[in-house]
Design goal:
Oligomer: single chain
Number of strands: 6
Helix content: 55-70%
Number of helices: 9
Amino acid sequence: MTHEFSVTGMTCGGCTATVKKALEKVPGITAARVTQAPPIAVLDMERHVGLGELKAALKDHPKYQIGEAPVKAQAHAPKPAPATAEVEEKQSFLKTYKPILLVFGYIVGVTLLVEFAADSFDGMRWMRHFMAGFFLVFSFFKLLDVPAFAMSYSSYDLVARRWLGWGYVYPFVELAFGILFLTNIQPVFTNAAAFVVMGVSTLGVIQSLLAKRKFQCACLGAVFNLPMSTITLVEDLLMVGMSGAMLFML
């Protein structure tokens, strides 16, 4: 059985990760999907779990309050025509992933301008600059709120799930990668390390997508509420592919 509840007090991705982890510890709850917008928790139960048990699960986090979900006024509204639904879905996709698409666009644009200024396109140099830009920009967003990122990251990363400290270390690892790629120091070590780190991250994303688990992607830290999707997988695979290609070319 599945039940929906309202949750107040959530302001970031770390909040949703904290609430999710606490609710999934309640006996009888097999899965919890928690979102900030709308602020709800959708719980899959193998037995009826009362509201009192749910509130008790959050007692160590008084900031978050769980209650019965309000009745949806539009519950019996007619469904949009297929064509309209398709347009709305496309608009929703662009709106949801606009931050990460813009970030990628800026990084691609800047690195291509560097190659244009050099009067010749060097694929190796472009990939190195792209990797540097990727790690520097993405580490910036994670460093804005490291604890919130760590909690969100622990919901799907293979290492962070077992050791929360990895979520606190990871933003600094990305920052170090950005500096190493930009300065081209120890390129063999840098590419090998990036290949391993991003490879492990990719495995966690694949596992979560195959399990059809719905939660926030922590790629831009806790600043934006981006759901986990194939976008996350493509992002990680791109980093694995580039680091592997440069390692092979060195």
